[in-house]
Amino acid sequence: MTPQAAQDVQTKFSSCLTNENSCWDGFSHSKEDKKVRAELSSVLANVTQKCEKALGMITSKPKAEMANGLKTTNRKLKEDDDNNEVGAEWSSTDRLLFQLSSLTPPDVVVAADGSGNYTTVSAAVSAAPSYSSKRYVIRIKAGVYRENVEVPKEKSNIMFLGDGRKTTIITGSRSVAGGSTTYQSATVAVEGQGFLARDITFQNTAGPSKYQAVALRVESDFAAFYKCGMLGYQNTLYVHSNRQFFRNCFIVGTIDFIVGNAAAVFQDCDIRARRPNPGQTVTITALRVGVILLKTPGL
């Protein structure tokens, strides 16, 4: 098996375990949920055992070698017009979308003031083609969009293109204290493969007393975020599973505010801790697999 094939298979089985854990966590709140959880325990334990055995049979490069490979192989991070590196493992067309996004005609426009094709991001995502191999660009004009958005697995190769991190904001306030699970609390949840986003902020305003409250949940394989913001408190950025890349992003939270089981690379990101409630301790990451942090020399 080639190293790339091993990484692909490893990612799939790791995601399988993560999805199982998310399902398991969903049955941990009410008394009825806990009854279902008890009944599922033997079935899920069997699935876990098989996935773990499969993972144990796969050999792949250590994470440190993968990070070095980004610098030394032909999969180097490419540069934008300011000589800043912006992405890895994506096509030349996708890189150009990041570099020349202001010159890229979108497929549809979302505008809260009614000047676009849609007034909500959810409506634009719903109307996007399913299982598309072609990049579908949704431009989201400056404004505050108060909604919860899901990009389901059938909506592949979608790009969110905002007018700026400080001016295009999708915000919500779901939380575990408010009755959601951690998984369901996400303001924006991305599952469709190959998702891209630039110049946009994902926010959860539930606050430090509402426990887990996700601003952005990402399950998309080879998802990339450039000049984006992720603002919240506990569990702000849920890098749920698969492979993800974050460049020049602004990530803010209190407890475990970067959490998940993804193979995630953060390059030149501004990661800041907010003041938590009295008695709470700030923890930046809570990950089962790991994170690679990269900084461009000279910056």
Largest sheet: 8 strands, parallel
* Average residue pLDDT: 82
Low-confidence stretches: 69-88
> Cα-atom Rg, whole angstroms?
19 Å
Tally the helices: 5
Distance between the termini: 38 Å
| Strand arrangement in the largest pleated sheet | 3-4-7-10-13-16-19-22
What is the H-and-E element order?
HHHEEHEHEEEEEEEEEEEEEEEEEEE
Strand content: 25-35%
Morphology? globular
What structural class do you assign from the helix and strand content? Answer: alpha/beta
Total number of beta strands: 22
Helix amount: 10-25%
What report would you give on this structure?
The structure is a single chain. This protein is an alpha/beta fold and 299 residues long. Helix content is 25%, strand content 29%. It is built from 5 helices and 22 strands. It has helices spanning 3-25, 31-56, 63-72, 92-99, 121-127, and strands at 78-79, 85-87, 108-110, 136-140, 143-146, 149-151, 158-162, 168-172, 188-190, 196-198, 201-204, 216-218, 223-226, 229-231, 237-239, 243-247, 250-253, 255-260, 263-267, 270-273, 283-287, 290-294. The strands form 4 sheets. Strands 3-4-7-10-13-16-19-22 form an 8-stranded parallel sheet, with helices on both faces. Strands 5-8-11-14-17-20 form a 6-stranded parallel sheet, with no helix packed on it. A 6-stranded parallel sheet has the order 6-9-12-15-18-21. Strand 1 (78-79) and strand 2 (85-87) form a beta hairpin. Helix 1 (3-25) runs antiparallel to helix 2 (31-56). The longest helix has 26 residues, at 31-56. The two termini are 38 Å apart. Residues 69-88 have low confidence and may be disordered.
